[in-house]
């Protein structure tokens, strides 16, 4: 069995989206959780789809809620761009985590990426803007 030190020294660098990149993606995993302040957090494992050299690459993106009402409005708008099934009436039904996960899982949409400086000195923070696909039944190619 290979050692962890050998595996680590030979591991490839993780793929990262480009600054200002536009990607067609599919949500392949959805995790609904909670922020450290007790508000909902929705994290998506996104896979690049379509006829592009980056097809098959994956990255995480999170959407977080807080006491900030304007920020929450922006979070809802982002998620609603990811799935046409996330409507005002859906949210008004007070859905549980499973219902939210089901509406997002497998959804296809566009993501535009930017990066924000990490004030702690680490890697820059990935910021994603979600844009609805023209036809949600077919991924954009």
What brief labels describe this structure?
five-stranded antiparallel sheet, single chain
Shape summary: globular
Please state the CA-atom Rg, rounded to the nearest Å.
17 Å
Strand order of the largest sheet: 3-2-1-4-5
The H-and-E topology, N to C, reads as HEEEHHHEE
Mean pLDDT: 90
What are the SSEs and their pairings?
Blueprint: H1 4-10, E1 22-34, E2 40-48, E3 58-64, H2 69-82, H3 88-92, H4 97-104, E4 108-116, E5 125-132
Antiparallel strand pairs: 1-2, 1-4, 2-3, 4-5
Task: Explain how this protein is built.
By secondary structure, the protein is α+β, with helices and mostly antiparallel strands. It contains four helices and five strands, in the order αβββαααββ. The chain has a five-stranded antiparallel beta sheet. The N and C termini lie far apart (41 Å).
Short account of what is shown:
This protein is of the alpha+beta class. It has 4 helices and 5 strands. It has a 5-stranded antiparallel β-sheet with strand order 3-2-1-4-5.
